[in-house]
Write a structure and sequence with these properties.
single chain, 253 residues, alpha/beta, TIM Barrel, eight-stranded mixed β-barrel, 12 helices, 9 strands, globular, binds guanosine-5'-monophosphate, binds manganese (II) ion, binds sodium ion
């Protein structure tokens, strides 16, 4: 049986879970979470989205999966707020196909309305690649998102070919420095320079900066010195299911 058929079965029976990885601000407070999709395969255990998202993109199965992710993320955040745990902003990763579908904005508005999540509690993570192809349409969508007050961050920043000077024309709110740069920030002068450059330019453009993939205290300290705004990585918190996220937040308060 092919993975594609298994994926179809998973879609029909909603065999997915969303895990949430906390984002930590400069005061050490949880300022948001990134929603990360997990597929619990009946035989193979958890399968990484790095494996099945590209497959789902090529078959079109990404559409129902993405709808499920967005709705689940919104509902979970509303539930956290209703339980009095916290009002957290959630970042959702978008796939290229999803972004370029004509009814993307309509679906998004509908989901926000149906779930009751305030639009400014939602952030969408796009990669540079998504913005580089079909730029006109992408810019129109970004302006629409801004007027709705939905946040937009550029994920894996630094790995594509776009520059910050290009981004200054786009209505986005954050850049997330790719973890490949964070990995060597304390050992490679080059990577340290790149990271400092990104932070400095982003701040001049009025953008917030997230460092992802922080695994050591030294990396965390260095990025704090460089003025980074938001920190994400296994050192601070791993992705976790909603019930563990609730415990994590309650423990810190
Ligand atoms: O969480 P993990 O390291 O397994 O994620 C692997 C890749 O899958 C990352 O690039 C991440 O952005 C992507 N990913 C995780 N969840 C989603 C999702 O809900 N939608 C899309 N399109 N990509 C996701
Ligand atoms: O491409 P994107 O940035 O969305 O990828 C997010 C993925 O990165 C998540 O699936 C998460 O599991 C993974 N991740 C988060 N923090 C760390 C970290 O500190 N180290 C490593 N290696 N991966 C991380
Ligand atoms: Mn991401
Ligand atoms: Na990333």
């Amino acid at each position: 049986v092919s993975l594609r058929n298994d994926l179809q079965e998973a879609i029909e029976n909603e065999r997915f879970e969303l895990h949430y990885q906390p984002l930590i601000d400069r005061h050490g407070e949880v300022c948001g979470v990134e929603a990360l999709l997990r597929w619990k395969h009946h035989e193979k255990g958890y399968i990484s989205p790095a494996v099945f998202i590209p497959l789902a993109e090529s078959t079109g199965q990404i559409m129902p999966i993405s709808r499920w992710v967005l709705e689940r993320a919104c509902r979970d955040m509303v539930s956290l707020a209703d339980q009095g745990v916290a009002r957290l902003r959630v970042s959702v990763n978008l796939s290229p196909l999803q972004f370029h579908r004509t009814n993307f904005l309509t679906n998004l508005r509908q989901t926000l309305q149906q779930t009751g999540l305030a639009p400014d509690m939602l952030e969408l993570e796009l990669t540079e690649g998504i913005l580089m192809n079909d730029t006109e349409l992408a810019i129109d969508i970004l302006h629409a998102l801004r007027s709705m007050q939905v946040g937009v961050s550029i994920d894996d920043f630094g790995t594509g070919f776009s520059s910050l000077s290009y981004l200054r024309h786009l209505p986005i709110s954050k850049v997330k420095i790719d973890r490949s740069f964070i990995n060597d920030v304390t050992t490679s002068g080059h990577d340290a320079a790149i990271v400092q450059g990104i932070i400095s330019m982003a701040h001049h453009l009025g953008l917030e900066v997230v460092a992802e993939g922080i695994e050591t205290h030294d990396q965390h300290q260095r990025l704090t010195e460089y003025g980074c705004d938001i920190f994400q990585g296994f050192l601070l918190a791993r992705p976790m299911p909603l019930d563990r996220l609730i415990a994590f937040i309650n423990r810190r308060q």
